[in-house]
């Protein structure tokens, strides 16, 4: 799926629906999840319906933790692969030349 074809609103709606499936999969009501994660039921409802406009990363991590998805947080921003060019040049000094050369 080419995620870039979707608007931010559509992506939030898709994420919210996926999250709801996970919540139901671990047999938690919105109220139970809210209490366990330390967020409001309204936050969960808005997230699951794609109407949230101010989800914090902290709240997202708390929700993911409760449904067993926290280990997937690394997939959001994976580590940058090593760049051999930067590694080989990192110990070298920059060459400065005079303007008339």
Task: Draw up the topology in text.
Blueprint (H helix, E strand, L loop, with lengths): L7 H18 L4 H8 L3 H9 L7 H10 L17 H6 L12
Helix pairs in contact: 1-3, 2-3, 2-4
Order of helices and strands: HHHHH
Helix amount, in percent? 40-55%
Number of strands: 0
Uncertain ranges = none
Tally of individual helices: 5
Characterize the largest beta sheet: strand count, sense, and whether it forms a barrel.
none
Helix-strand category: mainly alpha
- Portion of residues in beta strands equals under 5%
Distance between the termini: 52 Å
Shape field: elongated
How would you state the average pLDDT, rounded?
88
The value of Rg in angstroms is 22 Å
Give an overview of the whole structure.
Helix content is 50%, strand content 0%. The mean pLDDT is 88. The longest helix has 18 residues, at 8-25. The chain is elongated, with a radius of gyration of 22 Å. The protein has five helices and no strands. Helix 2 (30-37) crosses helix 4. The termini are far apart.
For this entry, give a set of tags.
101 residues, mainly alpha, 0% strand, single chain
Provide a quick synopsis of the model:
The chain has helices at residues 8-25, 30-37, 41-49, 57-66, 84-89. It has 101 residues and is mainly alpha-helical.
């Amino acid at each position: 799926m080419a995620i870039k074809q979707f608007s931010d609103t559509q992506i939030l709606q898709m994420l919210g629906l996926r999250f709801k499936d996970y919540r139901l999969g671990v047999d938690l009501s919105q109220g139970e999840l809210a209490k366990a994660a330390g967020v409001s039921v309204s936050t969960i409802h808005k997230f699951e319906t794609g109407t949230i406009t101010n989800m914090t990363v902290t709240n997202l991590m708390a929700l993911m933790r409760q449904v067993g998805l926290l280990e997937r947080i690394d997939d959001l921003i994976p580590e940058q692969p090593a760049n051999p060019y930067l590694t080989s040049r990192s110990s070298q000094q920059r060459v400065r030349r005079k303007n008339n050369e």
